[in-house]
Design brief:
With 168 residues, the chain is mainly β. The protein contains one helix and eleven strands. Strands 1, 3, 4, 6, 9 and 11 form a six-stranded antiparallel β-sheet that branches. It has a five-stranded antiparallel β-sheet with strand order 2-5-10-7-8, with no helix packed on it. The longest helix has 22 residues. It is globular and about 40 Å long.
Length: 168
C-alpha cells in the first residue's frame, strides 16, 4: 500500500512538472477575460464558475459577411523577439459546434504573427496557439484576435494569456 501511494505521488509530480514545462516562460499577457468585441450584435460580460477565473464574455455572431466581421481582441502587454517560441491560450465554448480563427497579429495592420483555426464545442475547452516569431514586435505592437463569424452562433470567451518561452 505504501509503495502504491508513493508511486502515485511520484506520478502526480511528473505530470505536474510536464504541465508546468508546457507553460513555463515569461507571461507577456497575464490571464484575463477582458475582451474588446467588434460586432454589431450584442455581447456582455458574465460570471461562469465552470471556466478558469470565473469570468467570460459572451458574443453573438450572425454568420453573415466575412469571418472577421465579428471578432474579439485583447492587446498583448509584452514584446516578442524574432525566434521566440510563443504560446497563446484561450478558454472558449459555443452554443453550437463552431470554427474560429485564433491569431496573434500586429495591432496596426492586423498582419498575422501566428494563426490557426480551432474547433469549438459546447463545453469549455482550453485552446492553444503555438508559434515561433519570424520578426521583432515591440511592446504594444501585437494583439490576440479571435475571428468569430463563421456561422450563426453564440461564443463564450474566457481568459486569454500569452507566454514567451524565449528562443529555443
Amino acid at each position: 500500500m505504501k509503495i502504491q501511494a508513493a508511486l502515485l505521488a511520484a506520478g502526480s509530480l511528473i505530470l505536474a512538472s510536464a504541465a508546468s514545462a508546457q507553460t513555463a516562460g515569461t507571461p507577456i499577457l497575464a490571464a484575463t477575460a477582458d475582451w474588446t468585441i467588434y460586432s454589431a450584435g450584442p455581447h456582455r460580460s458574465v460570471d461562469d464558475a465552470k471556466v478558469e477565473g470565473g469570468k467570460a464574455v459572451v458574443a453573438q455572431a450572425t454568420g453573415m459577411g466575412g469571418i472577421w466581421e465579428v471578432g474579439a481582441i485583447r492587446p498583448v502587454d509584452g514584446a516578442i523577439a524574432k525566434g521566440d517560441h510563443v504560446v497563446a491560450s484561450v478558454w472558449v465554448k459555443s452554443d453550437v459546434p463552431a470554427k474560429v480563427v485564433f491569431r496573434v497579429e500586429t495591432r496596426t495592420a492586423a498582419a498575422r504573427v501566428g494563426e490557426r483555426s480551432i474547433d469549438i464545442g459546447t463545453e469549455w475547452s482550453r485552446q492553444t496557439l503555438d508559434f515561433v516569431a519570424t520578426d521583432n514586435y515591440p511592446v504594444g505592437a501585437t494583439q490576440v484576435a479571435l475571428l468569430l463569424n463563421s456561422g450563426k452562433q453564440t461564443i463564450d470567451l474566457g481568459p486569454v494569456s500569452v507566454v514567451d518561452k524565449g528562443g529555443e
